[in-house]
From TrEMBL:
Pfam families per the UniProt record, alphabetical: PALP
Protein name: Probable D-serine dehydratase
Gene: dsdA
InterPro entries: D_Ser_am_lyase (IPR011780), Ser/Thr_Dehydratase (IPR050147), Ser/Thr_deHydtase_PyrdxlP-BS (IPR000634), TrpB-like_PALP (IPR001926), TrpB-like_PALP_sf (IPR036052)
Domain Tryptophan synthase beta chain-like PALP per the UniProt entry, residue ranges: 79-398
GO molecular function: D-serine ammonia-lyase activity; hydro-lyase activity; pyridoxal phosphate binding
N6-(pyridoxal phosphate)lysine carried by residues: K119
Record has Lyase as a keyword: yes
Top-tier EC class: lyase
Species for this entry: Pseudogulbenkiania subflava DSM 22618
Family label: Belongs to the serine/threonine dehydratase family. DsdA subfamily.
Length: 446
């Protein structure tokens, strides 16, 4: 019995489950998606919260300019490029046997400064919020101060009284660890077994304590949470339930809006925007999707992508059981090469908050991620880590699968011809060269 039902009963109630359990690639377009106005009250957060996070990142720009010289050219704002990838679009259309319609874009969060992944948005924001609260609370900082002063021995000594801890498959730990240690916090990262050696090494080089677990992500998080709870001076970054992470991710949307405007790209009823987001626990893609919905409302269509071995969000939303179910309950092993996506149990907060706002979910095999990795490198000269490719098959899924979905959403051929498809590329610029060479080899052979 699995949560009160036999596997056969589960299959009868949710026929798609059979494909998920068989580790077959599949897509599911959400029949419960509603208009933005109907969905918003269920989120529990609003535009004000995102604006606060945005203003905070603006206040910290002076700190970044002082502490991280690589952010100076961008004025201390951590942001990534947006670009069209026409050669990749052609290659994907050939690969999946579809006609090219619309325009394919990529958002290169792989190239975000400091930690080279989407976690440089949410993870860093949460640490900044905590640091600001402490410093303001102690009377050492005012919101209208020049935050460059935080990059000083005096502030590092102050933050050194406090600790920060996080459980991670790698990239979140990298972001929290690098910013936490630089601010002066005593920082501990609880790493799951699948975390890459180079990420652990890099953290240790920066004075972060790395604790390794032979288990998966959920277990590392649980143990980290338990240890942190015993220390009243320790703040635990809770990837499974954190509004501050979520809001840090959501700020991406107003930045993307400016980039789209600069590129002359219109988003409205006649020009829909599809966004494909790799999903682990759900905070990153959920936060970005929420920010995008606040701005583009019903004209943006957000779709989550997961590995076939870790379809935790799809499982949670499909069954309505959210964080009560883990993929392992159904015999799915949660073993994937996609760092950041090897998550067996989704965030209950994100799954419930966002289920009315998301158009769909799909899975991709690890072999396909590697093939796409090599293809993108060949076509566009862009090298990403495997998880960051999960958004690439999304365009073909939308254009070819489930006619009912396109009709329901008013996605006529005319509108699809004017659509933009945006693949959110979530990590990869900091992968060491020899590791990347291995990824490319595997992609060419797969
Ligand atoms: C963490 C991560 C994701 C997904 O973010 P979640 O908040 O875990 O859903 C996607 N891609 C990469 C590279 C990541 O590190």
């Amino acid at each position: 019995m699995i949560h009160g039902k036999t596997l056969q009963q589960w299959y009868r109630d949710y026929p798609l489950l059979e494909k998920l359990v068989a580790l077959e690639e599949c897509s599911w377009f959400n029949p419960a998606v509603t208009s933005f106005d109907d969905a918003l009250p269920h989120v529990g957060l609003g535009a004000d919260n995102v604006a606060e996070a945005s203003a905070r990142l603006q206040r910290f720009a002076a700190y970044f300019r002082a502490a991280f010289p690589e952010t100076r050219d961008a004025g201390g704002i951590l942001e990534s490029p947006l670009q069209a990838i026409p050669a990749m679009q052609q290659a994907l259309c050939q690969r999946y046997g579809i006609e090219p319609v619309g325009t394919l874009l990529v958002k290169l969060d792989s190239h975000l400064p400091i930690s080279g992944s989407i976690k440089a948005r949410g993870g860093i924001h949460e640490v900044l919020k905590h640091a600001e609260d402490l410093a303001v609370g102690a009377g050492l900082l005012r919101l209208d101060d020049d935050y460059a002063k935080l990059d000083s021995d005096a502030f590092r000594a102050f933050f050194g009284q406090y600790a920060i801890a996080v459980g991670s498959t790698g990239n979140l730990g990298l972001s929290i660890g690098l910013i936490g240690a630089r601010l002066g916090f005593r920082t501990t990262v609880h790493m799951s077994a699948d975390a890459r050696e180079w990420k652990k090494r890099r953290l240790r080089e920066h004075g972060v304590t790395v604790v390794e677990y032979p288990t998966d992500y959920s277990a590392a998080v649980a143990e980290g949470r338990r240890q942190a709870a015993a220390d009243p001076y320790c703040h635990f970054v809770d990837d499974e339930n954190s509004p501050e992470l979520f809001l840090g991710y959501a700020v991406a949307a107003e930045r993307l809006k400016r980039q789209l405007e600069q590129a002359g790209i219109v988003v409205d009823a006649e020009h829909p925007l599809f966004v494909y987001l790799p999903c682990g626990v759900g905070g990153g893609p959920g936060g970005v999707a929420f920010g995008l919905k606040l701005i583009f409302r019903d004209h943006v269509h957000c779709i989550f992508a997961e590995p076939t071995h870790s379809p935790c969000m799809l499982l949670g939303v499909l069954t309505g059981r959210h964080d009560e179910v883990a993929v392992q309950d159904f015999g799915i092993d949660n073993v994937t090469a996609a760092d950041g996506l090897a998550v067996g149990r989704p965030s209950g907060f994100v799954g419930r908050a966002m289920e009315r706002m998301l158009d769909g979910y799909y899975t991709v095999s690890d072999d396909e991620l590697y093939r796409l990795l090599a293809l993108l490198q060949q076509q566009e000269g862009i090298a990403l880590e495997p998880s960051a490719l999960a958004g690439m098959p999304g365009m073909a899924r939308v254009l070819t699968e489930n006619q009912g979905y396109r009709e329901r959403m008013g996605l006529t051929p005319q509108r699809l011809a004017r659509a933009h498809h945006l693949v959110w590329a979530t990590g990869g610029s900091m992968v060491p060269a020899e590791e990347m060479a291995g990824y490319l080899r595997r992609g060419r052979q797969a």
